[in-house]
């Protein structure tokens, strides 16, 4: 599995590269955002580890450009900036996970493996999270073996949450990227999440849809919690 590391701090880059190679990953390193974006567009990678503060192009710009080009490679964003607004902006730009500096390498490695594992699962035709099954080809949903009937908008919301299992999907991303509906108010999302919870979670002891206050929503099974 090949990983692209975009990091301008030579010490941190060497630490991450060495650790990932010891974990049997192949690693390419880019030292600025412009070069990193070019490599990400020219070669297939299993994962991108992306620093936020970069010369040339910052991490937000790199991430936004990749997603605009329909590049779906999982992105783990690294940054010394750990405010809620920075995390939200990183997620809105299309990052899949967010790790503040300084970090323990073992945590980075665990997040890398979790993202790769989820990406592999979600490329399958059927997405499974706990006892929830989503057939993305047929557009059918089952919970504990029972079919769940959803409106088109509810289904789009659920699929977006499931594809991002264990990761926050912001209200803005739901309006803009999931529904492509910039005219709706943000409380429209809350209303649809409420409807979706009634159909997916209400009759089950294990709740899968979670609110991340001030940011958005997450779909997470019990086994996902240990993935960090």
Topology of this protein?
Blueprint: E1 2-6, H1 10-22, E2 26-30, H2 33-42, E3 47-51, H3 59-68, E4 75-79, H4 84-92, E5 97-100, H5 105-122, E6 126-129, E7 132-135, E8 140-143, E9 146-148, H6 152-163, E10 169-170, H7 171-178, H8 186-200, E11 209-212, E12 216-219
Parallel strand pairs: 1-2, 1-3, 3-4, 4-5
Antiparallel strand pairs: 6-7, 7-8, 8-9, 10-12, 11-12
What is this entry, summarized?
With 228 residues, the chain is an alpha/beta fold. The strands form three sheets. It has a five-stranded parallel beta sheet, sandwiched between helices. The chain has a four-stranded antiparallel beta sheet with strand order 6-7-8-9, covered by helices on one side.
| Rg calculated over all Cα atoms | 18 Å
Number of contiguous helices: 8
Distance between the termini: 21 Å
Helix content: 40-55%
What structural class results from the helix and strand content?
alpha/beta
> Sheet with the most strands?
5 strands, parallel
Stretches where pLDDT falls below 50 for ≥5 residues? none
How many beta-strand runs? Answer: 12
Order of helices and strands: EHEHEHEHEHEEEEHEHHEE
Strand order of the largest sheet: 2-1-3-4-5
Strand residue content? 15-25%
Shape by Cα distribution: elongated
Mean pLDDT: 85
